[in-house]
Protein backbone atom coordinates (compact mmCIF):
# COMPACT_ATOMS: atom_id res chain seq x y z
CA UNK A 1 0.00 0.00 0.00
CA UNK A 2 1.46 3.38 -1.02
CA UNK A 3 1.85 6.32 1.35
CA UNK A 4 -0.77 8.38 -0.51
CA UNK A 5 -3.24 5.48 -0.27
CA UNK A 6 -2.59 5.24 3.47
CA UNK A 7 -3.20 8.97 3.81
CA UNK A 8 -6.50 8.73 1.92
CA UNK A 9 -7.58 5.70 3.94
CA UNK A 10 -6.71 7.42 7.20
CA UNK A 11 -8.73 10.49 6.21
CA UNK A 12 -11.69 8.42 5.01
CA UNK A 13 -11.74 6.45 8.25
CA UNK A 14 -11.63 9.58 10.37
CA UNK A 15 -14.46 11.20 8.39
CA UNK A 16 -16.85 8.62 9.77
CA UNK A 17 -16.08 9.58 13.34
CA UNK A 18 -18.40 12.16 14.99
CA UNK A 19 -15.42 14.26 16.08
CA UNK A 20 -14.22 14.47 12.48
CA UNK A 21 -17.51 15.98 11.34
CA UNK A 22 -17.37 18.52 14.16
CA UNK A 23 -13.74 19.29 13.33
CA UNK A 24 -14.68 19.85 9.68
CA UNK A 25 -17.37 22.34 10.67
CA UNK A 26 -15.03 24.06 13.12
CA UNK A 27 -12.28 24.29 10.52
CA UNK A 28 -14.68 25.77 7.97
CA UNK A 29 -16.18 28.24 10.48
CA UNK A 30 -12.81 29.51 11.69
CA UNK A 31 -11.57 29.62 8.10
CA UNK A 32 -14.49 31.81 7.07
CA UNK A 33 -13.83 34.08 10.05
CA UNK A 34 -10.15 34.43 9.17
CA UNK A 35 -10.80 34.86 5.45
CA UNK A 36 -13.45 37.51 6.08
CA UNK A 37 -11.17 39.29 8.52
CA UNK A 38 -8.35 39.31 5.97
CA UNK A 39 -10.57 40.98 3.36
CA UNK A 40 -11.60 43.69 5.82
CA UNK A 41 -8.13 44.10 7.31
CA UNK A 42 -6.40 44.62 3.98
CA UNK A 43 -8.92 47.25 2.91
CA UNK A 44 -8.60 49.08 6.23
CA UNK A 45 -4.81 48.99 5.89
CA UNK A 46 -5.01 50.24 2.32
CA UNK A 47 -6.63 53.48 3.50
CA UNK A 48 -3.02 54.67 3.80
CA UNK A 49 -3.15 55.01 0.01
CA UNK A 50 -5.66 57.84 0.51
CA UNK A 51 -3.23 59.69 2.77
CA UNK A 52 -2.05 59.76 6.36
CA UNK A 53 -5.16 61.47 7.69
CA UNK A 54 -7.50 58.95 6.04
CA UNK A 55 -5.63 56.08 7.70
CA UNK A 56 -5.57 57.95 11.02
CA UNK A 57 -9.37 58.40 10.92
CA UNK A 58 -9.91 54.73 10.11
CA UNK A 59 -7.72 53.68 13.05
CA UNK A 60 -9.56 55.96 15.47
CA UNK A 61 -12.90 54.62 14.26
CA UNK A 62 -11.86 50.98 14.67
CA UNK A 63 -10.39 51.63 18.12
CA UNK A 64 -13.60 53.23 19.38
CA UNK A 65 -12.64 56.88 19.10
CA UNK A 66 -16.33 57.85 19.07
CA UNK A 67 -16.49 56.82 22.74
CA UNK A 68 -13.57 59.03 23.73
CA UNK A 69 -13.90 62.68 24.74
CA UNK A 70 -10.81 63.49 22.66
CA UNK A 71 -11.81 61.38 19.68
CA UNK A 72 -8.68 59.29 20.07
CA UNK A 73 -9.18 55.54 20.00
CA UNK A 74 -8.14 52.99 22.61
CA UNK A 75 -5.12 50.81 21.64
CA UNK A 76 -6.38 48.18 24.10
CA UNK A 77 -9.04 47.38 21.47
CA UNK A 78 -6.31 46.35 19.03
CA UNK A 79 -4.60 44.30 21.73
CA UNK A 80 -7.78 42.43 22.76
CA UNK A 81 -8.82 41.80 19.15
CA UNK A 82 -5.33 40.52 18.31
CA UNK A 83 -5.55 38.05 21.22
CA UNK A 84 -8.94 36.89 19.97
CA UNK A 85 -7.65 36.41 16.41
CA UNK A 86 -4.66 34.49 17.74
CA UNK A 87 -7.03 32.10 19.52
CA UNK A 88 -9.03 31.64 16.31
CA UNK A 89 -5.81 30.93 14.40
CA UNK A 90 -4.76 28.34 17.00
CA UNK A 91 -8.11 26.54 16.79
CA UNK A 92 -8.07 26.65 12.99
CA UNK A 93 -4.51 25.29 12.84
CA UNK A 94 -5.25 22.57 15.40
CA UNK A 95 -8.18 21.11 13.47
CA UNK A 96 -6.43 21.55 10.11
CA UNK A 97 -3.28 19.68 11.17
CA UNK A 98 -5.12 16.35 11.09
CA UNK A 99 -5.17 16.67 7.26
CA UNK A 100 -1.46 17.45 7.06
CA UNK A 101 0.86 14.73 5.64
CA UNK A 102 3.02 13.82 8.61
CA UNK A 103 5.77 11.83 6.93
CA UNK A 104 8.27 12.53 4.15
CA UNK A 105 7.03 9.50 2.24
CA UNK A 106 3.49 10.88 2.26
CA UNK A 107 4.76 14.19 0.82
CA UNK A 108 6.60 12.33 -1.95
CA UNK A 109 3.54 10.25 -2.70
CA UNK A 110 1.39 13.36 -2.82
CA UNK A 111 3.78 15.07 -5.27
CA UNK A 112 3.86 11.91 -7.43
CA UNK A 113 0.07 11.72 -7.30
CA UNK A 114 -0.25 15.37 -8.37
CA UNK A 115 2.18 14.86 -11.24
CA UNK A 116 0.12 11.99 -12.62
CA UNK A 117 -3.22 13.80 -12.67
CA UNK A 118 -4.40 17.24 -13.73
CA UNK A 119 -6.93 17.88 -10.98
CA UNK A 120 -7.15 21.59 -10.18
CA UNK A 121 -8.70 21.13 -6.74
CA UNK A 122 -5.90 18.75 -5.69
CA UNK A 123 -3.31 21.31 -6.78
CA UNK A 124 -5.20 24.03 -4.89
CA UNK A 125 -5.23 21.85 -1.76
CA UNK A 126 -1.48 21.29 -2.10
CA UNK A 127 -0.80 25.05 -2.23
CA UNK A 128 -3.04 25.52 0.76
CA UNK A 129 -0.90 23.00 2.64
CA UNK A 130 2.31 24.81 1.70
CA UNK A 131 1.00 28.27 2.61
CA UNK A 132 -0.58 26.91 5.78
CA UNK A 133 2.81 25.57 6.87
CA UNK A 134 4.39 28.99 6.22
CA UNK A 135 1.63 30.83 8.08
CA UNK A 136 2.04 28.52 11.07
CA UNK A 137 5.28 30.43 11.77
CA UNK A 138 4.53 33.92 10.41
CA UNK A 139 1.03 34.71 11.69
CA UNK A 140 1.84 34.29 15.42
CA UNK A 141 4.83 36.62 15.01
CA UNK A 142 2.60 39.30 13.48
CA UNK A 143 -0.14 38.90 16.08
CA UNK A 144 2.26 38.83 19.02
CA UNK A 145 3.77 42.06 17.70
CA UNK A 146 0.33 43.68 17.72
CA UNK A 147 -0.41 42.31 21.19
CA UNK A 148 2.84 43.61 22.68
CA UNK A 149 2.80 46.90 20.78
CA UNK A 150 -0.80 47.74 19.79
CA UNK A 151 -0.11 51.40 18.95
CA UNK A 152 -0.89 51.95 15.27
CA UNK A 153 -1.13 55.00 13.06
CA UNK A 154 0.42 56.46 9.89
CA UNK A 155 3.78 57.17 11.55
CA UNK A 156 3.86 54.38 14.12
CA UNK A 157 2.90 51.72 11.58
CA UNK A 158 5.42 53.10 9.09
CA UNK A 159 8.06 53.00 11.82
CA UNK A 160 7.33 49.32 12.43
CA UNK A 161 7.50 48.54 8.71
CA UNK A 162 10.59 50.60 7.82
CA UNK A 163 12.74 51.22 10.91
CA UNK A 164 11.93 47.91 12.63
CA UNK A 165 12.28 46.02 9.31
CA UNK A 166 8.85 44.42 9.61
CA UNK A 167 8.62 44.60 5.82
CA UNK A 168 10.76 41.45 5.76
CA UNK A 169 7.95 39.63 7.56
CA UNK A 170 5.17 41.17 5.46
CA UNK A 171 6.86 40.34 2.15
CA UNK A 172 6.55 36.67 3.09
CA UNK A 173 3.26 36.94 4.97
CA UNK A 174 1.30 38.79 2.27
CA UNK A 175 1.40 36.20 -0.56
CA UNK A 176 1.10 33.25 1.83
CA UNK A 177 -1.95 34.56 3.68
CA UNK A 178 -3.74 35.80 0.54
CA UNK A 179 -3.28 32.53 -1.36
CA UNK A 180 -4.18 30.42 1.68
CA UNK A 181 -7.29 32.43 2.52
CA UNK A 182 -8.74 32.69 -0.98
CA UNK A 183 -8.16 29.01 -1.75
CA UNK A 184 -9.64 28.22 1.66
CA UNK A 185 -12.81 30.22 1.00
CA UNK A 186 -13.13 28.57 -2.40
CA UNK A 187 -12.81 25.08 -0.87
CA UNK A 188 -15.33 25.88 1.87
CA UNK A 189 -17.85 27.05 -0.72
CA UNK A 190 -17.41 23.84 -2.71
CA UNK A 191 -17.29 21.54 0.33
CA UNK A 192 -20.56 22.74 1.81
CA UNK A 193 -22.41 22.96 -1.52
CA UNK A 194 -22.70 26.76 -1.57
CA UNK A 195 -22.02 26.56 -5.31
CA UNK A 196 -21.45 23.83 -7.87
CA UNK A 197 -19.81 26.11 -10.43
CA UNK A 198 -16.21 25.33 -9.56
CA UNK A 199 -14.68 26.77 -12.72
CA UNK A 200 -16.31 30.17 -12.23
CA UNK A 201 -15.48 30.22 -8.53
CA UNK A 202 -11.83 29.38 -9.24
CA UNK A 203 -11.68 32.40 -11.56
CA UNK A 204 -13.12 34.62 -8.82
CA UNK A 205 -10.53 33.29 -6.36
CA UNK A 206 -7.70 34.00 -8.82
CA UNK A 207 -8.95 37.55 -9.43
CA UNK A 208 -9.19 38.16 -5.68
CA UNK A 209 -5.66 36.81 -5.16
CA UNK A 210 -4.21 39.15 -7.80
CA UNK A 211 -6.26 42.10 -6.52
CA UNK A 212 -5.31 41.60 -2.87
CA UNK A 213 -1.64 41.08 -3.70
CA UNK A 214 -1.60 44.35 -5.65
CA UNK A 215 -3.50 46.17 -2.88
CA UNK A 216 -1.25 44.81 -0.14
CA UNK A 217 1.93 45.53 -2.06
CA UNK A 218 0.86 49.12 -2.76
CA UNK A 219 0.06 49.64 0.92
CA UNK A 220 3.40 48.16 2.01
CA UNK A 221 5.30 50.41 -0.40
CA UNK A 222 3.42 53.43 0.98
CA UNK A 223 4.48 52.57 4.53
CA UNK A 224 8.08 52.18 3.36
CA UNK A 225 8.05 55.63 1.73
CA UNK A 226 6.48 57.23 4.80
CA UNK A 227 8.91 55.45 7.12
CA UNK A 228 11.92 56.55 5.09
CA UNK A 229 10.94 60.19 5.64
CA UNK A 230 10.53 59.89 9.41
CA UNK A 231 13.22 60.98 11.84
CA UNK A 232 14.15 59.13 15.04
CA UNK A 233 12.48 59.13 17.51
CA UNK A 234 9.26 58.83 15.52
CA UNK A 235 6.45 61.12 16.62
CA UNK A 236 2.83 59.90 16.31
CA UNK A 237 0.87 61.49 13.48
CA UNK A 238 -1.43 64.34 14.54
CA UNK A 239 -3.92 65.66 11.95
CA UNK A 240 -3.88 69.38 11.28
From TrEMBL:
Any one GO CC term of this protein is: membrane
User: Per the record's keyword annotation, is tRNA processing included, yes or no?
Assistant: no
- Indicate the transmembrane segments per the record: 26-44, 76-97, 124-147, 167-186, 207-226
Species in which this protein is naturally found: Shewanella septentrionalis
Q: Where does heme b bind?
A: 41, 92, 142, 180
Name the cofactor(s): heme
What is the protein named?
A: Fumarate reductase cytochrome b subunit
Main role? Membrane-anchoring subunit of succinate dehydrogenase (SDH).
Query: Where in or outside the cell is it found?
Result: Membrane
Gene3D superfamilies, alphabetized: Fumarate reductase/succinate dehydrogenase, transmembrane subunit (1.20.1300.10)
**InterPro entries with a match to the protein in the record:** Fum_red_B_TM, SQR/QFR_C/D, SuccDH_FuR_B_TM-su
The GO terms describing molecular function are: metal ion binding
Q: Which UniProt keywords apply?
A: Heme, Iron, Membrane, Metal-binding, Transmembrane, Transmembrane helix
List, in alphabetical order, the GO biological process terms annotated in this UniProt record. Answer: tricarboxylic acid cycle
Q: What is its main location?
A: membrane
